[in-house]
Specification:
The protein is an all-alpha fold. Helices cover 69% and strands 0% of the residues. The chain has one domain (16-80). It has helices at 18-36, 39-54, 60-80. Helix 1 (18-36) runs antiparallel to helix 2 and helix 2 (39-54) runs antiparallel to helix 3.
């Protein structure tokens, strides 16, 4: 049987903020989109971006940065496509 320090259970648990959750979810889907490049994935990302910003979970600078990345990816698809 393991013996734990008495303070181990007293440590506070990490609770991610809404912004951290939004960025993690959007980042994961952005990676999948970069690999597969399916139009439906892009539409899903755009919808998630708009929803996250509307709910206040994604500040404007992050929204702008992720939108710019999506625009660049779409432009590269058109150029190579």
């Amino acid at each position: 049987m393991a013996i734990h320090a008495s303070r181990a259970s007293a440590r506070p648990r990490f609770t991610p903020s809404l912004q951290q959750i939004a960025v993690a979810q959007l980042g994961a889907r952005l990676i999948v989109y970069r690999v597969n490049r399916r139009p439906a994935q892009r539409e899903q990302l755009l919808g998630m971006l708009a929803m996250a910003q509307a709910l206040g979970a994604l500040p404007t600078p992050e929204f702008d940065a992720l939108s710019a990345i999506l625009d660049q990816l779409q432009a590269s698809e058109v150029a190579h496509g």
